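Open question from group meeting: does this chain pack into something compact, or does most of it stay loose? Before anyone orders reagents, we agreed to write out a predicted structure and look at it together. Recording both the input and the output here so the notebook holds the full record.
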Amino acid sequence: MANNKSNPASAGAIETNDVAQIPAGERHGKPWHLFTVWSSPNLEFATVFVGALAIGFGLNIWQGLLAIVVGNALAGLTHGILSTWGPEAGLPQMVLGRNAFGKFGNLIPSGLSTLVAGIGWFAVNTVSGTFALDALTGMGKLPALLIVILLQVGIAFVGHNLIQKWERYASYFLAAVWLVVIVMVLGHDGIFNVAEATPGAGFPWAGFTLTAGAAYGYTAGWTAFASDYTRYLPANTDKTRLGLAAGLGNFLSTTLIMSIGALAFNVLGAGSVFGANPTADFTKTLGGFGALTLLAIVIGSISANILNVYSGAMSFLAMGFKLGFKSRRAIMVALAGLVGGVISYIGVLNNDVAHQLDGFLLVVSYWVAPWIAVVLTERILSKGKNAGARALAPKNSWAGAAAFVIATAFSIWGFCSQVMYTGPLAIAIHSVTLDDGRIVDVPDITALVGFVLAAVLFAVFRGADKNSK
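Structure tokens returned:
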């Protein structure tokens, strides 16, 4: 702790502030640092795979690229906005969420963030990094899994300052490698080829909305802990510069790498998207540069999971549990890494990773869109009230939780379009019935409906909830 006080930017001291408000004497950093914080974790194969889903869902390359841009633009905009809340309040994102959800209602989104980021995304990215390290070295999946887990949990265990340094310097290496990858992918014949459409087929709304939803889910998934990495910045940090750095860092990196995924798998074909090891299939297109690309995929996966496990632990602590030990954040990181590691091991043994990642991404968008709508609407309606002070003394309000639960449940029931379940309202909007009775080509606008409905419901409920004002 003495190191933190003498040098608040020290990368070697274990962070002990957890979800407490950051004192003025420990504030440090610059807005542009957020560009690398949010670009580095997206320079990995999971991002490539989201773009590849466009081809797997039957879109042509131009339709796929448009869906990627739309999904990421919507997510990047709100990510930049929520990132600006950290310096003023000095608090993590899920703690600030108490203003909209109340003391007990905030248990719902905080718990979801813990499960989705600290365990779910941790497992997804660990599997990706493990496959890449095994393909690079041939050491076997279990040793590769252990190395990846130990690195990402170790860095997150130390905390905020080491994370910032890792993301910044990793981004330089990753950017250099991915620039070469981009050039090599663009050099392949046929990457912009457009497959001939089925005669009489209309615009593929199902594939378009599924791809846009997956892109949105991936990029907006970071927004649930946007201010976790801005709360150490000085309170007078320029909000415009900060919002642009965070929002563009997220949008540009995801859009660029997803686009490369769509282009590469446009050559490889839809079969490779849902194959046993799409990571290896992708790197085969890079010839002799494949080995360095695999190394970049490993580092990118670690960069992503450092944020996931760190913020997953912060989300758990934001639920308000009293654990009774000083380094509770670090200990929660270790526990989350253990649980996520077990799930990762199961994922490594399972060859159906592609379909599971698809479903996971869409589920992320199903809950995170209504959550963003509620906290954003509350911020607008609060009209400049001190967000930090209110979050540290939350009231027992119900408007946010009610709006969130109703909007999420209704949007999933009515508009979900998945293999195991398709919403009746989505079918009514657009669908095609095959000769065998199957209903296909159903658009998935769950996230969009959830966002709009949650914002409207919160505005209405807030008027009836005296503790929401």
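Observations to bring back to the group:
The two ends are 38 Å apart (CA to CA).
The first helix runs from residue 2 to 6.
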